[in-house]
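Subject: for your reference before the review

Hello V.,

The reviewers asked for a structural picture of the protein, and I figured it would be easier to keep everything in one thread rather than splitting it across files. Below is the amino acid sequence we used in the manuscript, unchanged from the supplementary table.
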Amino acid sequence: MAVKTTNLRPVQKKKPAAAKKTASKNHLFVSRTAISERDYFDYNLLAVVILLTCFGLIMLYSSSAYEAIVENNDDMVYFRKQAIISAAALLLALIGSQIDYHWLADFSLPIYVISTILLVITKFVGREVNGAKRWLGTNSFSFQPAELAKIAVILLLPTLIVKMGYKLKGFKPVAVIIFFGAVSSFCTYYFTDNLSTAIIILGITVILVFIAHPKTAPFVIAACVGAVGVALLVAWIITGDVSGGFRIARIQVWLHPEDYASSGGYQILQALYAIGNGGFFGKGLGNSTQKLGSLPEAQNDMIFSIICEELGLFGAALVILLFVFLLYRLFFIAQNAPDLLGSLIVCGIFVHIALQVVLNIAVVTNLIPTTGITLPFISYGGTSILFLMAEMGLALGVSRQIKFK
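And here is what came back from the structure prediction:
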Protein backbone atom coordinates (compact mmCIF):
# COMPACT_ATOMS: atom_id res chain seq x y z
CA MET A 1 0.00 0.00 0.00
CA ALA A 2 1.51 3.25 -1.07
CA VAL A 3 1.75 6.04 1.48
CA LYS A 4 1.04 9.56 0.23
CA THR A 5 3.52 12.20 1.32
CA THR A 6 2.25 15.53 2.50
CA ASN A 7 3.86 18.98 2.22
CA LEU A 8 5.14 19.97 5.66
CA ARG A 9 5.37 23.73 4.82
CA PRO A 10 2.43 25.74 6.14
CA VAL A 11 -0.09 26.64 3.54
CA GLN A 12 -0.54 30.43 3.09
CA LYS A 13 -4.05 31.46 2.49
CA LYS A 14 -4.55 33.89 -0.35
CA LYS A 15 -6.00 37.24 0.57
CA PRO A 16 -8.98 38.40 -1.39
CA ALA A 17 -8.36 41.05 -4.01
CA ALA A 18 -10.42 43.56 -2.04
CA ALA A 19 -8.18 43.10 0.99
CA LYS A 20 -5.10 43.74 -1.14
CA LYS A 21 -6.56 46.96 -2.44
CA THR A 22 -7.47 48.08 1.07
CA ALA A 23 -3.97 47.36 2.34
CA SER A 24 -2.45 49.17 -0.61
CA LYS A 25 -4.62 52.21 -0.01
CA ASN A 26 -3.78 52.20 3.68
CA HIS A 27 -0.08 52.00 2.84
CA LEU A 28 -0.35 54.96 0.50
CA PHE A 29 -2.34 56.87 3.09
CA VAL A 30 0.31 56.27 5.74
CA SER A 31 3.19 57.23 3.43
CA ARG A 32 1.48 60.41 2.30
CA THR A 33 0.56 61.55 5.77
CA ALA A 34 4.06 60.73 7.02
CA ILE A 35 5.52 63.19 4.52
CA SER A 36 4.19 66.58 5.55
CA GLU A 37 4.59 69.78 3.62
CA ARG A 38 6.60 72.49 5.29
CA ASP A 39 7.03 76.16 4.52
CA TYR A 40 10.38 77.42 3.29
CA PHE A 41 12.21 80.65 4.06
CA ASP A 42 15.49 81.49 2.38
CA TYR A 43 17.73 82.28 5.33
CA ASN A 44 20.74 82.09 3.00
CA LEU A 45 19.47 85.11 1.08
CA LEU A 46 18.81 86.98 4.32
CA ALA A 47 22.31 86.13 5.58
CA VAL A 48 24.11 87.34 2.46
CA VAL A 49 22.07 90.57 2.43
CA ILE A 50 23.03 91.25 6.07
CA LEU A 51 26.67 90.40 5.31
CA LEU A 52 26.80 92.74 2.31
CA THR A 53 25.12 95.52 4.28
CA CYS A 54 27.54 95.22 7.21
CA PHE A 55 30.52 95.11 4.86
CA GLY A 56 29.12 98.15 3.07
CA LEU A 57 28.87 100.07 6.33
CA ILE A 58 32.50 99.25 7.16
CA MET A 59 33.72 100.40 3.75
CA LEU A 60 31.45 103.45 3.88
CA TYR A 61 33.04 104.59 7.13
CA SER A 62 36.51 103.92 5.79
CA SER A 63 35.92 105.85 2.56
CA SER A 64 33.91 108.77 4.02
CA ALA A 65 35.50 109.49 7.41
CA TYR A 66 38.04 112.00 6.06
CA GLU A 67 35.51 113.95 4.01
CA ALA A 68 33.02 113.88 6.91
CA ILE A 69 35.59 115.43 9.26
CA VAL A 70 36.54 118.12 6.75
CA GLU A 71 32.96 119.09 5.92
CA ASN A 72 31.09 118.39 9.17
CA ASN A 73 33.77 117.97 11.84
CA ASP A 74 32.25 114.54 12.55
CA ASP A 75 33.67 111.36 11.02
CA MET A 76 30.44 109.42 11.69
CA VAL A 77 28.01 111.58 9.69
CA TYR A 78 27.68 109.35 6.63
CA PHE A 79 28.06 106.12 8.58
CA ARG A 80 25.44 107.01 11.19
CA LYS A 81 22.81 107.98 8.66
CA GLN A 82 23.40 104.91 6.49
CA ALA A 83 23.43 102.56 9.50
CA ILE A 84 20.09 103.86 10.81
CA ILE A 85 18.42 103.62 7.40
CA SER A 86 19.89 100.16 6.77
CA ALA A 87 18.64 98.79 10.10
CA ALA A 88 15.18 100.26 9.59
CA ALA A 89 15.03 99.04 5.97
CA LEU A 90 16.08 95.51 6.98
CA LEU A 91 13.33 95.42 9.61
CA LEU A 92 10.79 96.61 7.04
CA ALA A 93 12.02 93.95 4.60
CA LEU A 94 11.42 91.22 7.19
CA ILE A 95 7.94 92.59 7.86
CA GLY A 96 7.27 92.93 4.14
CA SER A 97 8.32 89.31 3.55
CA GLN A 98 5.19 88.25 5.45
CA ILE A 99 2.93 89.98 2.90
CA ASP A 100 1.49 87.85 0.12
CA TYR A 101 3.05 89.00 -3.15
CA HIS A 102 -0.22 88.19 -4.96
CA TRP A 103 -1.84 90.95 -2.92
CA LEU A 104 0.94 93.36 -3.90
CA ALA A 105 0.51 92.39 -7.56
CA ASP A 106 -3.13 93.49 -7.36
CA PHE A 107 -1.88 97.03 -6.66
CA SER A 108 0.92 96.95 -9.24
CA LEU A 109 -0.88 99.30 -11.67
CA PRO A 110 -1.60 102.02 -9.04
CA ILE A 111 2.02 101.78 -7.85
CA TYR A 112 3.18 102.18 -11.46
CA VAL A 113 0.94 105.21 -12.03
CA ILE A 114 2.10 106.86 -8.78
CA SER A 115 5.77 106.28 -9.65
CA THR A 116 5.26 107.79 -13.12
CA ILE A 117 3.51 110.86 -11.70
CA LEU A 118 6.34 111.35 -9.20
CA LEU A 119 8.89 111.12 -12.01
CA VAL A 120 7.06 113.81 -13.99
CA ILE A 121 6.71 116.28 -11.12
CA THR A 122 10.36 115.84 -10.15
CA LYS A 123 11.37 117.96 -13.15
CA PHE A 124 9.36 120.89 -11.80
CA VAL A 125 9.49 120.68 -7.99
CA GLY A 126 12.43 118.36 -7.37
CA ARG A 127 15.57 119.19 -5.39
CA GLU A 128 18.66 119.93 -7.48
CA VAL A 129 21.83 118.16 -6.35
CA ASN A 130 25.06 118.39 -8.37
CA GLY A 131 23.21 120.00 -11.27
CA ALA A 132 20.44 117.35 -11.59
CA LYS A 133 16.86 117.29 -10.28
CA ARG A 134 16.38 113.71 -9.17
CA TRP A 135 15.10 114.05 -5.62
CA LEU A 136 11.76 114.90 -4.05
CA GLY A 137 11.51 116.21 -0.50
CA THR A 138 13.52 118.46 1.78
CA ASN A 139 17.12 118.50 2.95
CA SER A 140 16.23 116.36 5.97
CA PHE A 141 14.20 113.78 4.04
CA SER A 142 14.28 113.13 0.30
CA PHE A 143 14.10 110.19 -2.08
CA GLN A 144 14.54 109.41 -5.76
CA PRO A 145 11.29 108.47 -7.57
CA ALA A 146 13.41 106.53 -10.07
CA GLU A 147 14.05 103.90 -7.38
CA LEU A 148 10.29 103.46 -6.89
CA ALA A 149 9.91 103.14 -10.68
CA LYS A 150 12.16 100.06 -10.64
CA ILE A 151 9.92 98.25 -8.14
CA ALA A 152 6.80 99.38 -10.01
CA VAL A 153 8.09 97.79 -13.23
CA ILE A 154 9.22 94.63 -11.40
CA LEU A 155 5.66 94.23 -10.04
CA LEU A 156 3.60 95.34 -13.03
CA LEU A 157 5.27 93.53 -15.92
CA PRO A 158 5.07 90.02 -14.37
CA THR A 159 1.41 90.69 -13.54
CA LEU A 160 0.69 91.61 -17.17
CA ILE A 161 2.65 88.62 -18.48
CA VAL A 162 0.71 86.19 -16.28
CA LYS A 163 -2.64 87.71 -17.28
CA MET A 164 -1.81 87.47 -20.99
CA GLY A 165 -0.69 83.85 -20.72
CA TYR A 166 -0.38 82.04 -24.03
CA LYS A 167 -1.32 85.23 -25.92
CA LEU A 168 2.19 86.53 -25.23
CA LYS A 169 3.46 84.82 -28.38
CA GLY A 170 1.66 87.46 -30.44
CA PHE A 171 3.10 90.86 -31.35
CA LYS A 172 0.47 93.04 -29.67
CA PRO A 173 0.82 91.66 -26.11
CA VAL A 174 4.62 91.98 -26.30
CA ALA A 175 4.26 95.55 -27.56
CA VAL A 176 1.94 96.40 -24.64
CA ILE A 177 4.40 95.06 -22.05
CA ILE A 178 7.37 96.82 -23.65
CA PHE A 179 5.28 100.00 -23.86
CA PHE A 180 4.78 100.12 -20.07
CA GLY A 181 8.48 99.53 -19.45
CA ALA A 182 9.51 102.05 -22.12
CA VAL A 183 7.22 104.75 -20.68
CA SER A 184 8.77 104.36 -17.23
CA SER A 185 12.27 104.34 -18.75
CA PHE A 186 11.57 107.45 -20.84
CA CYS A 187 10.09 109.36 -17.89
CA THR A 188 13.11 108.46 -15.78
CA TYR A 189 15.47 109.76 -18.46
CA TYR A 190 13.54 112.85 -19.58
CA PHE A 191 12.11 114.15 -16.30
CA THR A 192 14.96 113.25 -13.92
CA ASP A 193 17.89 113.21 -16.37
CA ASN A 194 18.89 109.78 -15.04
CA LEU A 195 20.12 107.76 -18.01
CA SER A 196 21.64 104.94 -15.96
CA THR A 197 18.39 104.09 -14.16
CA ALA A 198 16.48 104.41 -17.45
CA ILE A 199 18.81 101.82 -18.99
CA ILE A 200 18.26 99.48 -16.04
CA ILE A 201 14.46 99.78 -16.26
CA LEU A 202 14.55 99.11 -19.99
CA GLY A 203 16.89 96.16 -19.39
CA ILE A 204 14.49 94.67 -16.81
CA THR A 205 11.63 95.05 -19.32
CA VAL A 206 13.40 93.39 -22.23
CA ILE A 207 14.82 90.50 -20.21
CA LEU A 208 11.48 89.73 -18.51
CA VAL A 209 9.80 89.56 -21.92
CA PHE A 210 12.68 87.40 -23.19
CA ILE A 211 12.24 84.97 -20.26
CA ALA A 212 8.48 84.64 -20.75
CA HIS A 213 8.37 84.65 -24.56
CA PRO A 214 8.39 81.23 -26.31
CA LYS A 215 10.65 82.43 -29.15
CA THR A 216 14.32 83.37 -28.87
CA ALA A 217 15.28 84.38 -32.41
CA PRO A 218 13.70 87.90 -32.40
CA PHE A 219 15.62 88.85 -29.25
CA VAL A 220 18.91 87.53 -30.60
CA ILE A 221 18.44 89.54 -33.80
CA ALA A 222 17.53 92.68 -31.82
CA ALA A 223 20.59 92.23 -29.57
CA CYS A 224 22.88 91.88 -32.58
CA VAL A 225 21.42 94.99 -34.24
CA GLY A 226 21.82 96.95 -30.99
CA ALA A 227 25.43 95.83 -30.57
CA VAL A 228 26.25 96.85 -34.14
CA GLY A 229 24.59 100.23 -33.57
CA VAL A 230 26.64 100.89 -30.42
CA ALA A 231 29.84 99.83 -32.19
CA LEU A 232 29.11 102.19 -35.09
CA LEU A 233 28.42 105.05 -32.68
CA VAL A 234 31.72 104.51 -30.87
CA ALA A 235 33.58 104.22 -34.19
CA TRP A 236 31.99 107.46 -35.39
CA ILE A 237 33.08 109.24 -32.22
CA ILE A 238 36.62 107.87 -32.51
CA THR A 239 37.17 108.68 -36.18
CA GLY A 240 35.17 111.89 -36.52
CA ASP A 241 35.47 115.35 -35.05
CA VAL A 242 32.41 115.03 -32.87
CA SER A 243 31.10 117.76 -30.61
CA GLY A 244 27.88 117.50 -28.69
CA GLY A 245 26.35 117.30 -25.25
CA PHE A 246 27.88 116.03 -22.07
CA ARG A 247 26.96 112.42 -22.92
CA ILE A 248 29.16 112.55 -26.04
CA ALA A 249 31.82 114.13 -23.85
CA ARG A 250 31.54 111.18 -21.44
CA ILE A 251 32.20 108.75 -24.27
CA GLN A 252 35.23 110.78 -25.35
CA VAL A 253 36.50 110.79 -21.75
CA TRP A 254 35.96 107.02 -21.58
CA LEU A 255 38.01 106.48 -24.74
CA HIS A 256 40.86 108.83 -23.77
CA PRO A 257 40.68 109.63 -20.02
CA GLU A 258 44.29 110.84 -19.91
CA ASP A 259 43.46 113.62 -22.38
CA TYR A 260 40.86 114.97 -19.94
CA ALA A 261 42.83 114.46 -16.74
CA SER A 262 42.05 117.96 -15.47
CA SER A 263 38.32 117.81 -16.22
CA GLY A 264 35.97 114.92 -16.98
CA GLY A 265 38.60 112.19 -16.78
CA TYR A 266 39.91 113.17 -13.35
CA GLN A 267 37.60 110.94 -11.29
CA ILE A 268 38.05 107.81 -13.36
CA LEU A 269 41.85 108.24 -13.45
CA GLN A 270 41.95 108.55 -9.65
CA ALA A 271 39.81 105.42 -9.38
CA LEU A 272 42.21 103.52 -11.63
CA TYR A 273 45.15 104.77 -9.55
CA ALA A 274 43.42 103.42 -6.44
CA ILE A 275 42.89 100.00 -8.06
CA GLY A 276 46.53 99.88 -9.20
CA ASN A 277 47.87 100.92 -5.79
CA GLY A 278 46.00 98.14 -4.02
CA GLY A 279 47.82 95.25 -5.64
CA PHE A 280 46.67 91.76 -4.71
CA PHE A 281 46.07 92.06 -0.94
CA GLY A 282 45.71 95.84 -0.67
CA LYS A 283 47.16 98.44 1.67
CA GLY A 284 44.98 97.39 4.58
CA LEU A 285 41.56 98.49 5.79
CA GLY A 286 41.50 102.26 6.32
CA ASN A 287 44.86 102.89 4.61
CA SER A 288 43.63 104.27 1.30
CA THR A 289 45.30 107.48 0.15
CA GLN A 290 43.00 108.23 -2.79
CA LYS A 291 40.06 108.85 -0.45
CA LEU A 292 41.97 111.73 1.19
CA GLY A 293 40.62 114.32 -1.22
CA SER A 294 41.99 112.85 -4.45
CA LEU A 295 38.92 110.80 -5.40
CA PRO A 296 35.71 112.88 -5.30
CA GLU A 297 32.64 111.23 -3.72
CA ALA A 298 34.61 108.11 -2.87
CA GLN A 299 31.74 106.74 -0.77
CA ASN A 300 29.28 106.78 -3.68
CA ASP A 301 29.81 105.47 -7.21
CA MET A 302 33.56 104.84 -6.82
CA ILE A 303 33.55 102.92 -3.54
CA PHE A 304 34.61 99.74 -5.36
CA SER A 305 37.96 101.41 -6.18
CA ILE A 306 38.52 102.05 -2.44
CA ILE A 307 37.76 98.38 -1.78
CA CYS A 308 40.41 97.46 -4.34
CA GLU A 309 42.96 99.85 -2.83
CA GLU A 310 42.47 98.79 0.79
CA LEU A 311 41.67 95.08 0.36
CA GLY A 312 43.30 94.46 -3.02
CA LEU A 313 42.08 92.25 -5.82
CA PHE A 314 41.57 89.50 -3.24
CA GLY A 315 39.02 91.59 -1.33
CA ALA A 316 37.37 92.73 -4.55
CA ALA A 317 37.01 89.09 -5.65
CA LEU A 318 35.38 88.20 -2.32
CA VAL A 319 32.87 91.02 -2.76
CA ILE A 320 32.05 89.81 -6.28
CA LEU A 321 31.59 86.27 -4.92
CA LEU A 322 29.12 87.60 -2.33
CA PHE A 323 27.10 89.19 -5.12
CA VAL A 324 27.30 85.95 -7.12
CA PHE A 325 25.93 84.04 -4.12
CA LEU A 326 23.16 86.62 -3.71
CA LEU A 327 22.18 86.18 -7.36
CA TYR A 328 22.33 82.40 -6.95
CA ARG A 329 19.84 82.54 -4.09
CA LEU A 330 17.52 84.72 -6.16
CA PHE A 331 17.84 82.24 -9.02
CA PHE A 332 16.99 79.39 -6.63
CA ILE A 333 13.86 81.18 -5.41
CA ALA A 334 12.76 81.99 -8.97
CA GLN A 335 13.29 78.38 -10.02
CA ASN A 336 11.25 76.98 -7.11
CA ALA A 337 8.58 79.69 -6.85
CA PRO A 338 5.04 78.33 -6.44
CA ASP A 339 3.77 80.03 -9.60
CA LEU A 340 4.85 82.00 -12.66
CA LEU A 341 4.05 85.36 -11.04
CA GLY A 342 6.45 84.78 -8.15
CA SER A 343 9.11 83.43 -10.48
CA LEU A 344 8.97 86.48 -12.78
CA ILE A 345 8.99 88.95 -9.87
CA VAL A 346 12.18 87.40 -8.51
CA CYS A 347 13.63 87.29 -12.04
CA GLY A 348 13.05 91.05 -12.26
CA ILE A 349 14.89 91.57 -8.97
CA PHE A 350 17.70 89.30 -10.22
CA VAL A 351 18.08 91.33 -13.41
CA HIS A 352 18.10 94.62 -11.51
CA ILE A 353 20.82 93.56 -9.05
CA ALA A 354 22.92 91.91 -11.76
CA LEU A 355 22.77 94.92 -14.09
CA GLN A 356 23.59 97.38 -11.33
CA VAL A 357 26.58 95.40 -10.03
CA VAL A 358 28.01 94.77 -13.51
CA LEU A 359 27.55 98.37 -14.66
CA ASN A 360 29.06 99.85 -11.48
CA ILE A 361 32.17 97.68 -11.63
CA ALA A 362 32.48 98.29 -15.38
CA VAL A 363 32.39 102.06 -14.80
CA VAL A 364 34.99 101.96 -12.00
CA THR A 365 37.36 99.90 -14.18
CA ASN A 366 36.64 102.17 -17.20
CA LEU A 367 35.14 99.40 -19.31
CA ILE A 368 32.14 101.65 -20.08
CA PRO A 369 31.52 105.42 -19.79
CA THR A 370 30.58 106.81 -16.39
CA THR A 371 26.88 106.46 -15.63
CA GLY A 372 26.42 107.30 -11.96
CA ILE A 373 25.26 103.82 -10.88
CA THR A 374 25.85 102.87 -7.25
CA LEU A 375 27.08 99.50 -5.95
CA PRO A 376 24.09 97.77 -4.26
CA PHE A 377 24.18 97.56 -0.43
CA ILE A 378 27.66 99.14 -0.31
CA SER A 379 27.55 102.64 -1.83
CA TYR A 380 26.19 105.52 0.23
CA GLY A 381 22.55 106.38 -0.37
CA GLY A 382 19.47 106.10 1.83
CA THR A 383 16.97 105.82 -1.02
CA SER A 384 18.99 103.09 -2.70
CA ILE A 385 19.29 100.89 0.39
CA LEU A 386 15.62 101.41 1.28
CA PHE A 387 14.27 100.21 -2.06
CA LEU A 388 16.88 97.45 -2.37
CA MET A 389 15.67 96.08 0.96
CA ALA A 390 12.10 96.35 -0.31
CA GLU A 391 13.08 94.13 -3.24
CA MET A 392 14.73 91.66 -0.88
CA GLY A 393 11.52 91.62 1.16
CA LEU A 394 9.62 90.75 -2.02
CA ALA A 395 12.03 87.91 -2.83
CA LEU A 396 11.82 86.57 0.73
CA GLY A 397 8.03 86.78 0.50
CA VAL A 398 8.10 84.58 -2.59
CA SER A 399 10.48 82.13 -0.89
CA ARG A 400 8.13 81.88 2.10
CA GLN A 401 5.45 80.35 -0.13
CA ILE A 402 7.72 77.63 -1.53
CA LYS A 403 6.52 74.21 -0.35
CA PHE A 404 8.91 71.29 0.18
CA LYS A 405 7.98 67.68 0.87
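For the response letter, the relevant points are probably these. The chain has a mean pLDDT of 84. The CA atoms of residues 260 and 266 lie 7 Å apart.

Happy to draft the paragraph if you're swamped.

O.
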